[in-house]
From TrEMBL:
One of its GO terms (molecular function) is transmembrane transporter activity. The chain crosses the membrane at residues 12-35, 55-79, 91-113, 162-184, 214-233, 269-286, 298-317. It comes from the Bacteria. It comes from Candidatus Pullichristensenella excrementigallinarum. The keyword Nucleotide-binding does not apply. It is a multi-pass membrane protein. InterPro entries: ABC_transp_permease. The keyword Transmembrane helix applies. It holds the Pfam family BPD_transp_2. Keywords: Cell inner membrane, Cell membrane, Membrane, Transmembrane, Transmembrane helix, Transport. This is Autoinducer 2 import system permease protein LsrD.
Length: 329
């Protein structure tokens, strides 16, 4: 009996934290391909590069757990970078404040479209994605935008090191990961996100304001995307109107690989961070090898997401069969 209980707990742990073993596997593969992978310099580089996608994925995770989706983050990421780099020529603080206000407002609009107008989130955020991308193309005149006057304070956000291998994008990523994790686990509003994503009608009967919860989730997604856009603009010093193209897919992939269920109601923020790390390591691995074309990165990422979704679906079917058997007994 004890052995059966141990095996049951082991299966549950593997089912909920499989991404951790995926991360270990990726580290082993990366080390075999290039022995310099585990050097402090390269690890710092991987963390810095993955910070933008990881931060977007945090907001995406909250939205997915709430039972919605946000396809506009890639375009909003680009728009946020453009807004911040444009206003950086006047004042760094102004650039940050205006960008975060604008990105959060876009998140609010997404939430209102889904709740008040009852538009399906895929349609609402897809429309926003196309609209924002077109807006950036118009504002940038279809060219890469670089401000006439560089702002050293603004550029320091992503370029100024704290210590030898530690910089602000890494710190911001870690702080936001912890903050979102604590929000979902220890606040009533965070628990409402899980309740709504698990079962909307049950959540409503429990007294959860399902519309406000969904709007809050999209607000968080917009805010996180704005932070990510600021980091991108600060690091590069210019913005291409095509920046972030497909970024929504990598954010969703990070969530799925991290164990967030697309059906909503389930997912851990810590595992989303690991999922983003796995996606980021894939990019790093392809940059470090010369055998496969970089186009294979998308193939492998897509295949990985499909495998994880398949495993989640099988687990859901097993759980449904178990409940039916229990009810029959």
């Amino acid at each position: 009996m004890k052995e059966q209980g141990f095996l049951k707990k082991a299966r549950r742990f593997l089912g909920g934290n499989g991404c951790f073993f995926g991360l270990i596997f990726m580290i082993v593969v990366a080390t075999l391909i290039n022995t310099s992978f585990l050097t402090p310099t390269n690890i710092s580089n991987v963390l810095r590069q993955m910070s933008t996608n990881s931060i977007i994925a945090l907001g995406m995770a909250v939205v997915i757990i709430s039972g919605s989706i946000d396809l506009s983050v890639g375009s909003l990421y680009c728009l946020s970078a453009f807004i911040s780099i444009y206003f950086s020529q006047y004042n760094a603080v102004l650039a940050v404040v205006i960008t975060l206000a604008a990105s959060t407002f876009i998140g609010l609009i997404n939430g209102l479209l889904v709740t008040k107008l009852d538009i399906h989130p895929w349609i609402a955020t897809l429309s926003m994605m196309l609209g924002l991308r077109g807006l950036v193309l118009v504002l940038a005149n279809e060219n890469t935008y670089k401000p006439p006057v560089a702002n050293a304070s603004f550029e320091a956000i992503a370029r100024q090191p704290i210590f030898t291998y530690l910089n602000w994008p890494i710190v911001i990523m870690v702080v936001l990961t912890v903050a979102v994790g604590l929000f979902l686990k220890y606040t009533g509003a965070g628990r409402d996100v899980y309740a709504r994503g698990g079962n909307v009608e049950a959540a409503r009967m429990m007294g959860v304001n399902v519309h406000r919860t969904l709007i809050n989730a999209h607000l968080i997604s917009g805010f996180m995307t704005g932070v990510s856009g600021i980091i991108l603009a600060s690091r590069i010093g210019s913005v291409s109107p095509l920046a972030g193209d497909g970024g929504e897919m990598y954010a969703i992939a990070s969530c799925v690989v991290g164990g967030v269920h697309l059906s909503g109601g389930r997912g851990k923020i810590g595992n989303v961070f690991i999922g983003a790390a796995i996606i980021g390591m894939l990019t790093n691995i392809f940059n470090m090898q010369n055998v496969l074309s970089t186009f294979w990165e998308s193939v492998i990422t897509g295949s990985l997401v499909l495998i994880v979704v398949f495993i989640q679906q099988m687990a859901a079917l097993r759980e449904e069969r178990r409940k039916r058997v229990t009810e029959a007994i």
